[in-house]
Structures are given as structure tokens and as C-alpha cells.
Amino acid sequence: MQAETISPAVSTDLVHPKKHSKLGNLMRELKKNKHYYILMSPYMLIFFAFTVIPVIISIALSFFYFNMLEFPRFIGWQNYSRLFLNDDVFMIAVKNTFLFAVISGPISYIACFIFAWIINELSPKVRAVMTLVFYAPSISGNVFFIWLIVFSGDRYGYLNGFLIKWGVVLEPIQWLTNEKYILPIIMIVQLWLSLGTSFLAFIAGLQTIDKSLIEAGAIDGIRNRWQELWFITLPSMRPQLMFGAVMQITGSFAVADISIALAGFPSVNYAGHTIVTHLMDFGTIRFEMGYASAIATVLFVIMLGTNMLTQKMLRKVGE
Amino acid sequence: MATKTLGVLRAPRKLNRSFTVSFLLFLFLAVFGAFMVLPLIYAINNAFKPLDELFIFPPRFFVRNPTTDNFYDLVALMGNSWVPLSRYIVNTLVITIIGTVGHIILSSAAAYPLAKFRFPGSKVLFSIVVMSLMFTGHVTAIPNYMVMSWLGWINTHASIIIPSLAFPLGLFLMKQFMEQIPDALLEAAKIDGASEYRIYAQIVMPNVKPAWLTLMILQFPALWGSDGGNFIYSENLKTLHYALGQITAGGIARAGVGAAVALILMIVPITLFIISQSNVIQTMATSGMKE
Lengths: 319, 291
Hints:
The structure holds two protein chains of two kinds. Chain A is mainly α. Chain A has two domains: 13-61, no CATH class; 76-315, MetI-like fold (Orthogonal Bundle). Chain A is built from 16 helices and two strands. Chain A is flat and about 70 Å long. In chain A, 44% of the residues are buried. By secondary structure, chain B is an all-alpha fold. Chain B has one domain: MetI-like (MetI-like fold, Orthogonal Bundle), CATH 1.10.3720. Helix content of chain B is 67%, strand content 0%. Chain B has 13 helices and no strands. Chain B starts with 18 loop residues before the first helix and ends in a 5-residue tail after the last helix.
């Protein structure tokens, strides 16, 4: 019933009754669609110059030894073999990054949707305020410092002060230098901060749902809100769900700033080390750009794979 | 349709909730909301704390004796600055406004054909855009600098503005929303003789207003918080964020001024956020996309 609104657009222009040579066909296609190319050209020109070209250079650099002083020297797959065979810290970083991706990624994704879904039902004025409230951490700029005060290892820390006052602990706990606590704390702060891009996209997406679909659903025998959510709301906003998934993947695999702000760089025994902090270590401190590029390329491949899996799962929504 | 809901909850469209469920949801939102808004309240309180309260133990969340000293100190400090404050503000506004408006226009213009039509290269181009989101920016800094210096854009505002016009996020967001526009609407416009450009400007864009208002909320703070990056080194081209950052770099003695700065930097994006959010609601109340 909702198939019309979610199926990808198919242009009828594509149907060719006559057969032409391949090149001739392509030329005709290009000419017929020239308006589309014109519309896209300013964006694509800038996008390729400032995003695609640097990425391609970076991937190429991953096959070089490049210390930013000498001219890059080609070394083939050596960066990669070193990364996988001779770098213990990288393995810690991969483990931590996957923990983020597996735990805080999905939780944050689902939380984004649930909050958006509830907030969307509020009256317009309350909705605007609540959206701001939930988006506040993302909009507040550098707000890590608040968590630094909360989790500070001395008695001045809010959490320690609170626990001591209530007699839970007798002496302050070193939250951010104790291996046991670092990762969970970073995850909590990451979750708290992550209600950003996908949350806003969901809110906007919920507002573009065709109301007549919901009315039609009621006639077709939708009994409760859960059925409405699964059979109407979710399928109708599949484009936004896909967008949110990509945002969550890029966000949770690239955790770095929070780890550095809270646990230091490098963190105690690499307890908060992630792939991106590992990359920053080599890129900005040791000036091994080739190696850092190899790390970035590996991360890129991991994210692409995760994204393919996620998109497959999302296609099942509403079936 | 009889509706019985808690004061703030709007009557659901068809399926009604019981009072208890509404109340529980409200409670749930209130608890999490308090948790989320904490930094905002803390930042506001901090900006009005005198120095002795900023360092007090046990740390206090709310201010006891509010003072505006921090702001006066800030003004006094800025007065000694080599480049007048207005210069930084103008720089920031130029970057932010051109970058945001341009980004919305360019990315949606590129998103429209990708969302609604298939033509040679359309699929490849879109997947390149999505894939580029997954490549971390930390290693592209050097290639980026190389591109900038080939173009001779080092130490110009163009080095900040132009790349921001084509951030991949905007195109992805706009494309996802434009997919939902009914084809019938576009075909009807085409039959009426509208050109592709006109369809884009007069039919597609108004229909995805929530999307580009969202994009504005995302892009604006990103540029507003820009400190000039690696490309700008002339003092009179620097941004407000950079100038205020320099002040707080003064260390612990500037803690009060730092709190004032944090609040000032926050206010503009938040104001914009509130304005645009209430706008989204207004448009959606009056217009509906129907097939």
C-alpha cells in the first residue's frame, strides 16, 4: 500500500525502442539528461576537488613510506602487513572500536528513533522545545569539559563528591585512569552526544509521512501503535532510516575526540584507544602519513562492509 | 474522534493512547530530557558565576550569586585586542552565511536528479558521495592542503567556504528526502511545461522544507564553530571562534571569561535552531504531500 512512495524513482525515459551502437546510445543519454548534469555540476566539481581527490591521494599514500619531509617512497603492501602482523596496539584499537560499533552504535540508533518518534507526537510548541533539549549536547560545542568535571578523579569531581557524600565510597575513584572504567565512560558520553544528525533527520522524516497512509492503515486493520510503527511509519521513512544508519556507522567507528578529551592521549594502557586515535598517533605525532593512510583505508573498508550489512537488514523493515 | 490525552500531548491521529501510557511517556521524556539538557543549563549557570564559585568544593551546579563580571572582563579583554572584534564577527558571518546557503542550494540541486531519475553515472556518483562519508578526515588534511595551494587559495576565506559547499552529508540528506516526493507531482509539472530547473526550484524545494531546514541546523554550527583550520593564518581573516578561543587559552585565571565565551558561542546556533524548528512545524501544518 505504501509501495508508491518508497520505491526508487524509475524514469520512463530509459526505454529505448531502437537499437544503437553503445557509444551512440551513451551520447544520446547524456544529451537527453543534460539538465540533470548541469544541476549536479557545481556540487560535483567542488566535491571531487576537495573530497574525492584528497581521499584518492590518501589511499594511494597508504602504499608509500611518507614521513612528510622526504618524498614518498613506494613500499607496496608493507604498511598493511605491518599493521596486521606487527602492531599489537592496533589490535587493541580494533577491539575497542568494534565494541563501540556493536554496543553504542545500535543503542544510539534505536534511541534516536524512539526519542524522535515520541517527540513527534507532542504538540508543536512542546515539540520544538523537546527537540532542542535532546539536541542540546550536539549543539553546545565543546561540552566534553562537563564530563571531565563529573568524572574527575579527585574529590572535586561531581560523581566522586556525590558518592562520598552519600557514603558509597570512602575515597575518590580514579574514573578516567582506571582501565576498568574508561571504556564504559566513553561509551556513555558517546551515547549522550550521539543524538545529533540522525535524530534530526528522523524528526524531519516523521513530519513528511503521508498522513493518508495512516488513515488507510486504520481501515486495513492496523490495531495498535506497534503495528502502525512497523507497517506504516518505518517503511515510509526508510530513506531517513538508511541515512541515520550511515551516520551512526561513521560516528561509532570514528570515535576519537571523546576518548582523547576524557581519557587522554594515549589513554592508560590504551584502554580507550580506537582506530582513529591510533591513526592520529601515527599521523600527527610520529609523522608516518603512509602508515596512517593505511589505517584510514582499513577503517574505510570496515565501514563499507558494515554499511552493506546494515542496508541489507534495513530492507527487511516492515516485511 | 474522542481524544483524552495529557495536556501537552496532541491527540494522536487515529489510534489513541491511554492516559497512563501518555503519562509514562511524558515521564520517560522528562527524565532523559533532564539528562540531555544538563550541559546547556550548566554552561548558562557557569557564565554567571563569580570566580570563587567556579572553583568551590563541593562543586555547585547552580549559581548562587549571579554576576555579569565575566562578560565585562571579556569586553575589556577584547578591547585590548589588536584586531577589532567586529572584524572577527564579520569574517565568521561571511563564512557561515555563504557556506550554509550555498551548501543547501548546491547539494539539493545535485540531489534532485540523483533522487528522482536514472541516467548514466547516477548510481556511481551517489555511492561515491555516501562512501566519502566513511573516509576519515584526519589523513586527508595533507592532500587537501596540496589542492588548496595548487589553487592558490591558502589564506583566503574561499578555502573554508568553497569546500563546505559540497560536503557529502548535505547531498545524502537531501537525496533521501527527495526520494519521497511522488513522481506524479513531477510528471504533472512536466506536462504543464515546467523546465527541470523550475521543477527543482518551485516544486521539489518547497516539498522538502523540513530536510533543508535540518541541513541548515547541521551546517550552520559546523561553520560557525570553524576556527580557520589549517588554511588561514592572517589575523584579520580569522574567525570569532578562533579569537575567543585565544582568550580562554589564558588558562585558569580566565576560567570566568571562558565560561562567558562558551555561552556566547552557543547562543547563535541555538537561536537559529529554535527559529527553524518552529518553522518546520508551521509548514507541515499547512501543506501536505499527497499522491
